[in-house]
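Notebook entry, structure prediction.
Reason for the run: the old model in the group folder had no record of what sequence produced it. Starting over properly, with the input documented here first.
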Amino acid sequence: MQFGVHKMTWGPFFDPDNLEPFFEQAKALGADTVEFRPMDAMLQLDLKKCHETRNLLEKYGLKPKFTYGFPKYLDMRSSDPFTREYATDFLIRGIRCVAESGGNNIGSAGIYACWPTLYDNEMILPADKIEHTKRSIECVRKAIRVAEECDVTLNIELVNRFENYLLNTVDEGLAYVKEIDSPNCNLLLDMFHLGIEENDILAAVRKVGEAGMIGHMHVSERNRAIPQKGSPFDWKGLGNVLHEVGYEGGITIEAAAAFDGASSYNMRIWRNLQEDVSLEGRLNALRSSLTFLRSEMN
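New structure, fully documented this time:
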């Protein structure tokens, strides 16, 4: 398994238009992978920017794990067929961007619906969830053909009920991926979200692993903090399950450090999750976490 870091922990210290400091710092931590959203120019298929990013990743010996999200006005759940068409085209552009940038995967709840859901817009009824899921599947089915051509895998992230309503549990995720019916579509399992939605996290991970559908993993403490020694979670048990099901993919620390920025707002984090939230404090916590996770899960 490859262990890596997510740009989210950097908070205001991450510059989406200047990725080299992020890559340099991640490499110094001992990360194998880095996870980030492509800069806007890359999503516009500025090939120069895509290739510059690919070259930087090669320079630092890092493998990319791309995250993704739609602009607020594009939503595959929409009743407007033109909105769904534009959302599908936007995802296809993202797939091509990732391929040009040296990546082979995208993982996010933002692949199949806008994130986070704003529940104050309308009441969601069971019939709405069924219809919206069908619309999303229809759009992703169109985009997955391009993903197959580009050798890019879409990892559908399951998120908790407070952030979305389409896919919360592994059973819902497995049913969705089976409808897509492509070797280039798997699930992204996030320990924070599974901790809210599943009665038994390890059993849920095992179920997806035995189906051969774990595409990527996000890890954090139950409160979204950076995993550390003394954690109440059974990281060794998780590692054992992943080895037993033959998972050899990525493990990204997707954790928050502080109450700062758009990410913490969207996740409703209203307090700092560690004492030292300076850049140095965040990097030290991540370095310690990478060492801890490798010792527990390998």
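Summary: The domain at 2-297 is CATH 3.20.20.150 (TIM Barrel).
The old model has been moved to the deprecated folder.
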